[in-house]
Write a structure and sequence with these properties.
With 203 residues, this protein is mainly β. The protein is built from no helices and 25 strands. The strands form two sheets. It has a 19-stranded parallel sheet that branches. The chain has a six-stranded parallel sheet with strand order 3-5-8-12-16-20, with no helix packed on it. The radius of gyration is 15 Å and the shape is globular.
């Protein structure tokens, strides 16, 4: 039933705290930013699944920049707390992301989405475990994309692209993150950690 389609006609500046959109029913069709931006998104929550979308399943997000300061319990990201089977194309995330528990990423906390030709340019991504430039935990595909996050910080599992790459694929990506730090277990990587269960190619 993917019949919900949206297209931005101009930039949007948010003046109030944002309430994440739940699009987990699989009926979301597409959001085309058409080169425009959503600016000033602020979320401070004690809930899980926190971002512009709390959860999104299916559909396409393209040509959109989102600037945000997002803080939640776990599964926290600029675009979505949790993204399943969604395609993200030509998108940019900037700002700050912090999870008080696990799974923080520039785009999403946990993801089985496909990301292509996107840029994550946040100042910082922080979690207790699983912090990544694009995803805290990824079982999807991240392709032809760049992470320029200044700092990716976790007590366990920090990666410039994904904190953990759990059966996912990271291909033709570049991570220019200044600081990628795992404070406790020293399990950090410029691209990702625990590569045994996922695939990395030409990064």
């Amino acid at each position: 039933c993917q019949d919900k389609h949206f297209k931005l006609g101009s930039d949007i500046v948010l003046s109030k705290e944002w309430k994440p959109i739940d699009a987990s029913d699989g009926c979301f069709g597409s959001l085309d930013g058409d080169g425009h931006s959503i600016l000033g998104m602020k979320i401070k929550s004690s809930n899980r699944n926190v971002g512009f979308f709390s959860e999104i399943k299916g559909g396409t997000i393209k040509n959109l920049l989102i600037d945000g300061d997002v803080h939640g319990k776990n599964n926290v990201g600029i675009f979505a707390g949790k993204a399943d089977e969604t395609v993200f194309s030509n998108c940019v995330a900037i700002g700050f992301v912090k999870a008080d528990s696990n799974n923080a990423g520039g785009f999403f906390g946990t993801s089985s989405a496909r990301v292509e030709n996107c840029v994550s340019a946040l100042y910082s991504v922080e979690a207790v475990a699983n912090a990544g430039g694009f995803a805290g935990s990824s079982s999807g595909q991240i392709i032809n994309s760049m992470s320029a996050v200044h700092s990716v910080l976790a007590d366990m599992y920090a990666g410039g692209i994904a904190g953990i790459n759990n059966t996912g694929t990271i291909k033709n990506c570049f991570a220019a993150s200044m600081n990628v730090v795992d404070f406790l277990t020293y399990n950090s990587g410029r691209i990702t950690t625990n590569k045994e269960s996922g695939t990395t190619q030409n990064n």
